Structures are given as C-alpha cells and as structure tokens.
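User: Teach me something about this protein's shape.
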Amino acid sequence: MSLSARADDAATLLIEARRAGTALAAFPRPAPATLEDAYAVQRRLCDALALPVLGWKVGRIPGPLVASLAAERLAGPILRSVDVSDGTPGQARIFVGGTGAIEAEVMLRLDRVPDHLPSLADAPDYVSEIRVGFEVASSPAPDVHDLAPFGIIADIGINNGLLIGPPLARDGFDRLGVETRIEGASVGRGRACDVLDGPWGSLRFLVDLHLRGVIALAPGQWISAGAITGVHPIVPGEHATASFGSAIRIACTAVPETGLP
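Assistant: First, the predicted structure itself:
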C-alpha cells in the first residue's frame, strides 16, 4: 500500500472517531511529518465532516521546533460554537479516553478579510467585536500531543468547539489579567498581550495562511486568538471558570463527547 493510501486510511479513522464521539487507541499512523502534509490532512477531515467553518483557532508550535519549522503558531478550523454571554455555564465536550483541555482566550469576530497582510496597528480594523471565551481542545487520540504540531494540525487543530462569552472593550482588552480555575483551584494566570505578539499577531498569522491558500477566512468567522493562561486538562464532570479582569467571568462543565452530526 502506498504512503498516500495509508495516510488516507489514517485520516478516515479520525473522521469516523469524531463522527461517533469515540476515542482511538492511538493517533493513526502514518502521522504527517511536515506542516504541508498536516494541513492537507486537516482540509480532508474538514471537507469530509461537511460542517460550516465558523472560525479558526490559533495554537503554539512547540518551542524546540520553532526554528526548524520557521513558524510559531498553528491553526485549526472551528466547527462548533455556543454563546454563553448570558452567564449560563457552557458544556465543554471531551472525548472520553482521548485528550481534553480548556483554554481561556479572547475571540475576535472577523468583519472583512484583508487582501494583504495588515500591520499589527491595522489589524483591529478588520475585527467587528471582541469577546471572552473558552476554546475546548479535545481529540479522539490520547497521544496527539506526542505528535505536535503535526498531529494537532491534522486533527483539525484538536478544536472541539468554542464557548463565546461577553464582549470586551477594545481599549486595553489584551492587558486584562486572566485566571483559569478548575474545581475551584487556580491552574493558570496570564495576559493576552504576553502571548507572542498578542491577539493581533494571531490575526496576522491567519491572514498569512489565507493569502497563501492554506486556509480560507471569511467574514463573520471567529478567531480564537491563543491560550492566555495555558492549556489545562479537564475530564467530564469537572467545572472550570475563567475571569477576565474583575468584571467578567465565564464558566463551563466538561461533558462526554457524543459525536458530530
């Protein structure tokens, strides 16, 4: 069997697991070994799942690989989102037996798609609103992080939905102190402005991928701009909160994934 055929078989297993909401014993082999191959598998999964792309998550390339890959960030499509701006705790859907985590992030709503790479100063002109939220990061594969970044990219960025909370004022939103708690215990603190070159850098990264034909941005999509306090493992039954400054707080409870439609 050819390498491409075996890669197709591996992608099919991920597609079936996501549709069924079941875990795999391990990430299907052969795993992609280049960014180009990983994004190609991601597109295949996204096309096969046939759901609207509601936005894009941005993650980090592991530090030791940044120089060799000439990249600091990775991207994945968002296929599910829930509005929790009314204060109702959201549900973070986690693959039981796979991997699961929540990440406190700022969410940027894309107003229009740039036809050139904007500067950090110009990037806000392309965003209509800014909100707080959780990215739910879950994969059917329990060892997907061992294959970072290629396995993460291939498995649609291991994104399993957004929980989108209340709006943030533009002025100083990235300098707010953010704290994540799971079961009442603090698991991380940070500020969005301290994550590489901040949320506007995440937008520039996605625009660059778009202009190179790697992904397709569209007006109205959400950009989950990167984990502010870290990537925090969570299992079904656990409760998480994130505070953004002193005035805004969101919450979620992890529940078992039951499969995509």
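Now, about its shape. The CA atoms of residues 174 and 193 lie 5 Å apart. The first strand starts at residue 55 and ends at 60. If you'd like, I can walk through any region in more detail.
User: That's plenty for now, thanks!
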